[in-house]
Every structure is written in structure tokens, then in C-alpha cells.
Specification:
With 156 residues, the protein is mostly helical. Helix content is 76%, strand content 0%. Helix 1 runs parallel beside helix 3 and helix 2 crosses helix 3.
């Protein structure tokens, strides 16, 4: 495992920031460790590639042209997004309205019309009867199971 301090020293070595004593000490450490030697060789290759790369100088009016392009792109975006947002709100409203109409049609068709076809009409008297029956048949009543039939006759 290579220490972070040694990795930083290798970077400093190739960038020319180490003095002679530190460079000699680092090279001795590199010779003693195979893992460190491999990292040193890879760093050497990388630094040689970076040294051979061409440096390209931008034209003097580069910054002015850059900001001109940015401002023109901003103008285009602001115009197109304004129109898109306006259309987007319209389509959101229309699609929401269509979904609400579709769901209401399904609900009316399945529940209201089916109830009329079956002949069942909900009455408040039915609800009151069920409520009174539930109150009469509580866990405290000993005759709760007699509602379902004569239980004494089953044993015989």
C-alpha cells in the first residue's frame, strides 16, 4: 500500500518542486519497493505525455465571442420556454379535464346505472334495521348464536 505522502512527493518530483536531497531520498524509496516503482513509472509516463501535448492559445477575441454566444442562446431559450410553458399549461388543463370526464363517466355507468338495473333501492329503514340488529346481538348477549339456528338440536 502506497502512502499518500509518497504519492504527493512523486507528483512534486515530476513538477520540479523537490530539492536535491528530497529527490535522492524519494528515488531510494522507489528502488526499494516494487509497488512504488510501478507507480513512479506510470507517473513518469503520464508526465511525459503531458509535456508532449501542444498548448493551444485562444484567439484574443475569444471571451467576447463566448459571451455573445451565451447571450444569444439565453434569448432563444427565454422566448421558446415562454411559449412552451403557455402551451404546457393549456395541455395540462385539457388532459386533466379529459381524465375527470372519463372517470365520472365510468363511475356513473358502473354504479348508478347498475343500481337502477338491479332493482335495488337503498332505504333508510334497511339501515336502521341492520343497526338495531347489531346492537341487539352483542358479545354480552347469551342468545347471539340463536340467530343462526337452533344450536341445541345439532348435538342430538
Amino acid at each position: 500500500m502506497i502512502d499518500e505522502k509518497i504519492i504527493n512527493q512523486i507528483e512534486d518530483y515530476f513538477s520540479g518542486e523537490l530539492n536535491d536531497e528530497e529527490s535522492k531520498s524519494l528515488l531510494l524509496k522507489v528502488e526499494d519497493s516494487d509497488e512504488l516503482r510501478k507507480h513512479f513509472e506510470e507517473s513518469n509516463k503520464l508526465w511525459s505525455y503531458m509535456a508532449s501535448a501542444e498548448t493551444i492559445e485562444p484567439s484574443p477575441d475569444y471571451i467576447r465571442r463566448f459571451w455573445k454566444i451565451v447571450s444569444s442562446n439565453e434569448e432563444k431559450k427565454s422566448r421558446s420556454f415562454f411559449q412552451f410553458n403557455f402551451m404546457n399549461k393549456k395541455w395540462t388543463f385539457v388532459s386533466s379535464l379529459a381524465v375527470i370526464l372519463l372517470l365520472s363517466t365510468i363511475i356513473v355507468n358502473n354504479f348508478v346505472l347498475e343500481e337502477e338495473k338491479s332493482g335495488y333501492v337503498y332505504e333508510e329503514d334497511d339501515e336502521l334495521l341492520i343497526h338495531n340488529l347489531e346492537e341487539a346481538l352483542s358479545k354480552n348477549t347469551p342468545d347471539v348464536l340463536n340467530v343462526y339456528g337452533p344450536w341445541e338440536d345439532i348435538e342430538n
